[in-house]
């Protein structure tokens, strides 16, 4: 927010996801007709539905210590000194090549802007399976719903502090592991 570097505020919002693909589906599974035997009673009245999502990662800042500029309340960004090659590492392996950035040691702001690199995207699949049991004028529906069926981790952005020993490493994930719910619904 320092007046000399207001132009560096231009950049994608922190919640921006440039690419979003979502596919929702509902399928009533084929089954036998009413009263056509015991096998038909087992295979009829099933519904499968779900949502498949694939999204790009959110942008983040590559920061440095602001001690050299003495401008409290302002973000100090690192200097871009090389090509920010995406390595894709998780854990102790860097997500981007950390040698592409350097700390700022002079009395000036760094040369990178706001939210210049993106973290990892994610893929997700939510599924549910319903079974309807007609009882006279009522319907009893048994439900199984599973969120993040594949239990795929959705990783957070890398550590963007160029002065940190864990610079450009990802050490945490979003807490959205697989969840399964069971339920009954009575329609009348």
Helix content: under 10%
Distance between the terminal alpha carbons, to the nearest Å? 59 Å
Adjacency order of strands in the biggest sheet: 1-2-7-8-9
Alpha-carbon Rg, integer: 25 Å
Low-pLDDT sequence parts: none
Q: Figure out the total of helices.
A: 1
- Tally of extended strands? 9
Broad shape: elongated
Mean pLDDT, to the nearest integer, reads: 90
Percentage of β-strand residues: 25-35%
SSE arrangement, N to C: EHEEEEEEEE
Features:
single chain; mainly beta; 5-stranded antiparallel sheet; 9 strands; elongated
Question: What does it look like?
Answer:
There is one protein chain. This protein is mainly beta. Helices cover 3% and strands 32% of the residues. The protein is built from 1 helix and 9 strands. A 5-stranded antiparallel β-sheet has the order 1-2-7-8-9, with no helix packed on it. Strands 3-6 form a two-stranded antiparallel sheet. A hairpin with a 2-residue loop joins strand 7 (122-135) and strand 8. The longest helix has 6 residues, at 38-43. The radius of gyration is 25 Å and the shape is elongated. The termini are far apart. The mean pLDDT is 90.
């Amino acid at each position: 927010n320092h007046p000399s570097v207001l132009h560096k505020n231009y950049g994608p919002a922190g919640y921006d996801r440039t690419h979003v693909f979502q596919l929702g589906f509902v399928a009533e599974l084929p089954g036998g007709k009413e009263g056509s035997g015991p096998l038909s009673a087992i295979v009829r009245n099933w519904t499968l539905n779900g949502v498949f999502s694939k999204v790009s990662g959110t942008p983040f800042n590559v920061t440095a210590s602001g001690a050299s500029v003495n401008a409290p309340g302002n973000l100090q960004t690192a200097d871009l000194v090389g090509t920010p090659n995406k390595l894709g590492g998780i854990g102790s392996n860097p997500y981007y090549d950390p040698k592409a950035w350097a700390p700022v040691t002079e009395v000036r702001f760094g040369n990178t802007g706001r939210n210049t690199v993106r973290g990892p995207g994610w893929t997700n699949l939510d599924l549910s399976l319903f079974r309807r049991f007609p009882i006279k004028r009522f319907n009893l529906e048994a439900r199984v719903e599973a969120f993040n069926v594949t239990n795929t981790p959705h990783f957070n952005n890398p550590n963007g502090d160029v002065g940190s020993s864990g610079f450009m490493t990802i050490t945490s994930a979003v807490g959205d592991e697989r969840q399964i719910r069971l339920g009954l619904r009575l329609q009348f």
